[in-house]
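Lecture 7 notes: from sequence to structure.
We start with the chain below.
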Amino acid sequence: MMSSLTFLLFLILRLRVTGTAAETWRHCTDLPPLDLLSFVLEKDPSKPTPGVHVVEGGGMRGVHFSRPEPSLSFPAPQLLVNCDLFPVEFSIVVTLKVTHIALKTNEYIFSVVDENNEDNRTVKGGKEEDEAEEEDRGERTAGNEEAKKTENEGEEAVKRRRAERARERGRILLGLRLSRNRLHLLFRGHGRVTEHWVFRGLQLTDNLWHTLVLAVDGRHARLTVDCGAPLKLATSRSFPADLHIGGSRFHLGSRGRWKGLFSGLVRQLVLVPGSDATPEICPSPDPKQTQTLSVPPLLFDLPIRAQKPASDPPSYESQVRVSVGVERSCSEQRRGQMWFNPLRKGLYLCDGARWITLLEEHKRLDYVVEHQILTTTSETYDIEVFHVPDVGLMAALAHRSADSGSAVYLWTHSGFRLYQNISTYGALSWRHFTIGKKVFLVVSNSGGGLEEQAEVYSQAELSVIYKWSKRKKRFVMHQTLQTHCARDWEAFHIGGRAYLAVANHRQGNNNHTIDSVVYRWNKGTKTFELHQSLQTLGAYDWEFFSVGPYHFLVVANAFDGVTTHVDSVIYVWVNGSFQVFQTIKTFCATDWEMFQIGGRVFLAVANGHRLHGNGSGQYAINSTIYELDMAAHLFVRFQDIVTYSAVDWEFFSLGDENFLIVANSFDGQSYSLNSVLYRWRGYEGFVPVHWLPTTGCSDWEFFTSGEESYLIYSSAKAPLSKVFKLKTQ
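Predicted structure tokens for the same chain:
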């Protein structure tokens, strides 16, 4: 993913405060494969996409581009998220079917067009003139009328037409173009030169599907057709490392104009930044083993054809059958037949030897139902769900009241039931962790409600570590640590050693600029000892995570005594301690949630509210998801989501689907409002799919029991918590 030596050198030389507003040109090298067809076909699945028709041919479906449409065009940054420059290394996978009778001189499979190119300057030189002459020759051979028109116009008219074509080419940043027996890659090179790489001798059989993989790496390009012997190019000039995509648009099936509209069918069109997709598409040189990278679901839905009368000549389409059952064998006699398995809810295609998966049902969220209302003795600020060996699934609830203390619950077939009461003082959070086979819980005591009793309050500011006693089957006190209105504990391991970090919120009523502390486990004394102090501003939360061999700790700073608009800080572990890696502007940050999707690293911050001095607070504000840019070594803004005094994010996965749920706690008038569940939709980021009514929501936790999945939330304004069951299909 990244060079360890390079990254470490970067950290040592550049350990300084770095804002997210820094201007850095970012290459697209760490994005997953980008399905261009799905990006346009699935924008609104409820209605057909204008400008395309789904056509069946050769037993498979593809799209036919009927006209250039805005729906087939989109800004490049929507697809190449958080990128400024097109990748230097990339590959393009396209599955298409053409008819040479219909194929025009030059047809665009796709293009990236510069919408801000005002002067439309192109490069003068033999390459451009040769290309113009080639296009002229192609058009003259396309029909006698065009040839005569060219002759009658005279030399000046021909020059004007060539100049106009040159201007059009100047608008193209990147284009993949097909002509008779040739595949063309056009791109804007150094000095705004329009480079033109041509693969000659391309053999595509009429009315058959072909899969092409074009791989580009610097000066080298390679084209593989149906996993055959590759066509190779080695050019004098490299693909540009500074191809800026800002202000450009992708156009599928055209260059945004009627002229050059692709006349064939396209089934697969995928851009793979940063890598060569050939090994994945072609695991062997056998064309029958050609793999699919990504095909839009719309193109999988083949109809079941009625059998033709015996008098009709046999065809591939007429032989396609869909059999239904739980067991089917695939043989040469069943090649091309499909099988639907009702138990797996899967659709498979026989290739003569084995069943190839076309569609298979994965566990996906259908709806959310209320499972249990857990009546508690007090309002609850935090829930920690964990597992104790030989006992089962448990949940520790941090209760506000010092009179009733907090509680640990045990999960049963009917839900959570009370297992143990623990004395706490204004508990704000619990954290479960293990050291070896030992199980621990640590509670953040804030001393809430005891300010008038100085002696008791001092005692209540001691946060407590509890250890699970196998003999007593209870948590027993193990160690106390002095804290200051502790809001959160984070437990982690580095190099085989155990650490705890406490988020100290304030000392007294007004001092928010204080040290939070990282403790290290002493194996000899079996206690935690001070390891490092880090200055924080009204700290609310710690989040630890690792990326490869590097360890990070991020603090949610909430308030400096005057304003909630303060820097939250990401620290990186270097030479035995945490040092500043990056700062990010936040607004009363209350929680950080780290998660990964397909190798991409994200950080989501929950922003509570905007407040400055004695002014009124603003509670409906953006919380933000950041993504780690591997090239720039920064977390950059990925998506903003409007939240209402958000206090928690929770990420979880169901099957192949990924979700985030936010704890909305207050909108400025009411504590009774919806918390929102978001589903990951790739290019679109996270989109809302469920709205769950909550009251003063303070925390969400996801957990599983057997084959079932659940969410539980706590209320800081009512003595109850609720468990929701996630119904999947």
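Points to note: The first strand starts at residue 34 and ends at 35. Residues 12-23, 118-150, 301-320, 449-459 have pLDDT under 50 and may be disordered.
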